[in-house]
């Protein structure tokens, strides 16, 4: 397909092209961690200088998608008719990588991102698109049918919110979807501070990453989210498994090092606690 579509995204929505670039390059490799023809189709159809903006492609976003896919497949094995809500989905093509004929997929993203997504991916009864911020819970909560298991994902999203916004969103989801699952990635405070500095994070001389106000150490996620929800919540880290090179062996070793594994960001998942019996709720 010729590159004929010129994307006009900016700020945070433009980051969907960054992740598309890295996923597509991973999908194009014989030794890549993804098989994703739809991603490659979209990548080649867009007239955009990926390398100029983002530099050399690297595997992290492809690995991240693989981690989310793996956890979602486990969920769907247990709940074939479950509901998957992908917050800030952009041009992610997860629904094409996972066979789930009974599931309901809900993609939530800003209007400009949904408009570009629908140039390539049409919504239907099983795959719904909602043009709204993930923070606008009134726009998407009611789209989730009651009585079905729920798996909510946020790839490359939470770091673009302030901590108070993250807290409000997680608390609202926990109240609305008790027993549901939430999986997201996060960055470390040092990278967050870099993006907020006067110079910002210049990914290349031609691309400045948007500000990322929320950075958190991995070891502080569990107590932080537990405090937000007013009761203990287990937060499970998911190890990045690089498909090749020295990081394939180095990262698992670092995960076992108490000091080192607290420094970087990463991927994690949690299950929202059930609603406690009346009279046992704690004030928040």
UniProtKB/TrEMBL annotation:
<dbReference type="GO" id="GO:0032259">
    <property type="term" value="P:methylation"/>
</dbReference>
<keyword id="KW-0489">Methyltransferase</keyword>
<protein>
    <submittedName>
        <fullName>Class I SAM-dependent methyltransferase</fullName>
        <ecNumber>2.1.1.-</ecNumber>
    </submittedName>
</protein>
<dbReference type="InterPro" id="IPR029063">
    <property type="entry name" value="SAM-dependent_MTases_sf"/>
</dbReference>
<dbReference type="Pfam" id="PF04072">
    <property type="entry name" value="LCM"/>
</dbReference>
<dbReference type="GO" id="GO:0008168">
    <property type="term" value="F:methyltransferase activity"/>
</dbReference>
<dbReference type="InterPro" id="IPR007213">
    <property type="entry name" value="Ppm1/Ppm2/Tcmp"/>
</dbReference>
<keyword id="KW-0808">Transferase</keyword>
């Amino acid at each position: 397909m010729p590159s004929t579509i010129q994307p006009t995204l900016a700020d945070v929505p433009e980051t969907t092209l960054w992740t598309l670039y890295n996923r597509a390059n991973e999908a194009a490799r014989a030794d890549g961690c993804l098989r994703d023809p739809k991603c490659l189709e979209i990548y080649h159809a867009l007239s955009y200088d990926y390398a100029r903006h983002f530099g050399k492609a690297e595997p992290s976003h492809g690995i991240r998608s693989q981690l989310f896919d793996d956890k979602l497949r486990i969920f769907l094995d247990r709940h074939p008719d479950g509901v998957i809500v992908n917050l800030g989905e952009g041009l992610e093509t997860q629904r094409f990588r996972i066979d789930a004929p009974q599931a309901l997929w809900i993609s939530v993203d800003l209007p400009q991102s949904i408009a570009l997504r629908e140039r390539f991916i049409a919504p239907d009864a099983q795959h719904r698109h909602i043009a709204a911020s993930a923070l606008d819970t009134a726009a998407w909560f009611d789209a989730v049918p009651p009585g079905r298991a729920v798996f909510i994902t946020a790839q490359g999203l939470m770091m673009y919110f302030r901590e108070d916004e993250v807290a409000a969103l997680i608390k609202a989801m926990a109240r609305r979807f008790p027993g549901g699952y939430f999986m997201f990635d996060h960055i470390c405070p040092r990278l967050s501070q870099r993006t907020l500095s006067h110079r910002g994070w210049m990914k290349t001389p031609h691309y400045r990453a948007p500000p990322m106000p929320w950075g958190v150490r991995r070891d502080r996620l569990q107590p932080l989210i537990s405090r937000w929800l007013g009761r203990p919540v287990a937060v499970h880290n998911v190890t990045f498994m690089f498909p090749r090179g020295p990081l394939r062996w180095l990262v698992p070793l670092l995960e076992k090092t108490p000091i080192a594994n607290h420094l970087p960001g990463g991927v994690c998942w949690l299950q929202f606690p059930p609603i406690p019996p009346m009279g046992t709720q704690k004030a928040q």
